[in-house]
Amino acid sequence: MTTLIDAPPSDADGILPSKKKSSGGGLGQYILVRFLLIFPTIFILVTMVFFLMRITGDPITSALGGRLPPDQLQERIHAAGYDRPILVQYLEYLGQLITGNFGTTLSDNRKVSEMLTTYGAATLELSINAVLVALVVGIPLGMIAAHRRDKAPDAVLRIFAILCYSTPVFFSGLLFKLTFAVWLGWLPVAGRATTSTELSLTGLGAPSGIYWLDALRSGNMAALGDVVGHAVLPAVALGLLTAGIFLRLVRTNVIGTLGKDYIEAGRSRGVSEFRLVTKHAYKPALIPIITVMGLQIAVLLGGAVLTETTFEWKGLGFQLASYLTARDFVAVQGIVVLLAIIVAFTNFIVDIAAALIDPRVRY
Fold first, then answer.
1. How far apart are the first and last CA of the chain?
2. What digits encode the pLDDT tens for the residues 13-50?
3. Is 254 helix (H, G, I), strand (E, B) or coil?
4. Domains of the chain (ranges, CATH numbers)
5. 319 near 331, Cβ under 8 Å?
């Protein structure tokens, strides 16, 4: 991912230096190059996942070994084609992926693509909620820490940031459940919604699977309140993991920007320190966050496995833990490949957004 250099934003106070024409390549060429790079990235990830899964043997032996007589086990292995050369299996698997066929799960005999569609929306909803928490918490606190540099608020916020990204998400999740659900009784303990709410939302004509969006579409405010209440604890537990990184990143970049010549020019003209921080220094500090956000998608998806398991949030992470327990490597392989594809396309979108904000990243 492209590394960005802080650039002063345009503003109306007359303190910014004149812009120079970028010498980078055109935006269209940049987008094309970044898009074409997605395919070798996905190919390498798919290949690694396939062969790593095969290290322990064929999926049927891994899932059913010791539970079936040897002759029945061999029949299933032969019927599924897992006794053929590994290269033949690999080429066939690539062909299936191109057509969108991720195979069939071994533990519950369902299409992997159907399972991904069913539970993917829940993980997407959790990730969106967590990103919102990270942005709402990390960016303002980072600006406060920069504005109060080397003072008590700055020290407290730096410690808070360290605690955020160093505390395991399952541990913070358990603490939140114990405090806000068990002791105080303010929020639900687990799940995405109550049973009645889930039935009302899934009964819609074309549900998206994102509960708060379906509740808004249907105008059901009671369901929306129920969904938001269930989403608070898992979103905060996962969002704080990234909020600490955003806080430190904003603080560092705002402090760096405050030392620029055009900021000093603003001070000499009598512009208040608060205005310099909130209007001039924070915009360049946000540019690296866009880049880092793409990298944090992988962190959020990884943390979603522990978060969903802790809060019984039935998404891809929850299913991944269940399939790992059942040693259903066909399902595990499908989930991991999908997550890898999501990360690759997310990084592509983030790169394009960064190029639109700062043309100097184009090449």
1. 12
2. 555 544 444 444 577 888 888 888 888 988 998 898 88
3. helix
4. 116-325 (1.10.3720.10)
5. yes
